[in-house]
Amino acid sequence: MSENFVCDLPHGKKSIKIINRDKKVISGCTTRDHSIVIKDGKGCYLTDMEGRKYLDFGAGIAVMNVGHANPFVLAAIRKQANHMTHVGFADFYHELPVRFSETLVKTINSSNLNNVFLSNSGTEAVEAAYKCARWHTKKKFVIAFDHCFHGRTMGSLSMTNSKPVQRERYAPFLPVKHVPYPYWYRMKMEPEEASNFCLDKLEKTMRKTEAAALFMETIQGEGGYVVPPKSFVKGVRKLCNDHNILYCDDEVQSGGFRTGKFLAVENFSVMPDIVSMAKSIGGGLPLGATISSRKIMDWVPGSHSTTFGGNLVSCASGIAALDFMEKKKLGQNAQRIGKLMMKRLEEMKEQYEIIGDVRGIGLMIGIEIVKDKRSRAINSDGRDAIQCEVARRGMILLGAGKSVIRFCPPLVITNQQAEKGLDIFEGSVRKVG
Ligand code: PLP
Asked: 270 near 233, Cβ under 8 Å?
């Protein structure tokens, strides 16, 4: 139907009509991997306009941790929507944003992360962390990593550099120094060697730069689901302490129990100074949160604000989502199913020449598709072909980086659904490879 899609499935009349209307009215910067028009979602499944069902391993880009159309979350949304939708939290007090923030802080459970700024998206949650760090330290520079993704508003975008198209024509940017991230598989180094190399570069940059903050995704998301060595994350914390630089942890994609722990950074036994969250904490509605201590969040009224932050329906949805994730122990499920998936994916790696690397924590798993194991050469066409074949067989997978497939299903996924997804994936790898 169009040459721009990674995956162009045959369509019925209903889908074609909507895609044609979309093309006329929706701005051209909107990206689409799939030419699928979704009608419905339930749990781990999506249904398209023609009634085809897809096992969803993308979860709306790691948003629907609680599963699509979660009845508990929908009931909370309906209840609040029947009552009142927006209060203007920048002008009035209201109990719901307070309750959401209390619930969030309680879930994080760290004495230094107890003050919350509410917004509407990931980029806003990062932007707030950026502005807060500059306000608090009165310094201009920040440090970010190569291949990172922090969002697309100008503060976040000044750090983001996972794909050239994200930055093209938008210079000048805010003052950011980029340093290497230990993507050891692509650096062709052992994990510890890559960790030492990157820490060394980081230290040199910190020595030369009066930086307010360092921004890091503990597990790089859009850049390719890259898991750093533990020594690296611990080293980053130490260097930030030594150089009096705020450690800002972007948990927009990795947070919300996706890695088993509420924050991915907890897997590395490290605690940051500022955390940015969005995606899963809204249970499917737009909700961003920037969390730090009262000491660091010493900005004054009006130094940062937003009309919709603390939206009542989003907060009601967020409270229900956090409650559901906690009560149903979705973190434990993510760990359990993640292990099961990693085991089978490791076996596939031994068997198929185009699977170069398998990495991940919990249900944040990246699979590196290569031309061959020896060269580790990037195989974007192979990756796209697998994504497409998988969709033909009734499953949604998203790409990341240049040649990575990500597994980020809803955390409510069952053993059978995980096995089914792995079967479809393996069948597709066999066909493409
Ligand atoms: N930070 C990370 C780590 C992300 O993965 C994303 C989005 O994918 C963002 C920030 C930006 O979030 P949003 O698209 O909600 O602005």
From this structure: yes
pLDDT by residue (tens digit) across 171-198? 999 999 999 999 999 999 999 999 999 9
Residues 18 and 76 in one domain: no
Q: Is the CB of 215 under 6 A from ligand 1?
A: no
| Total tally of structural domains belonging to the chain | 2
The pLDDT confidence band at residue 433, using thresholds 50, 70 and 90, is confident
Closest ligand 1 atom number to CA of residue 221: 5
- For residues 342 and 260, membership in a common domain is answered with no
Cα(221) to centroid of ligand 1, in Å?
9
For ligand 1, atom 1: residue with the closest CA: 150
Q: What is the pLDDT of residues 220-244, one digit of tens each?
A: 999 999 999 999 999 999 999 999 9
DSSP conformation letters of 286-327 = --EEEEE-TTT--PPTTSS--SSTT-HHHHHHHHHHHHHHHH
Nearest protein CA to atom 10 of ligand 1, as residue:
150
Supply the range of the domain harboring residue 413: 13-69+329-432
Same domain, 44 and 183: no
pTM: 0.97
151 lines ligand 1 (CB under 6 A): yes
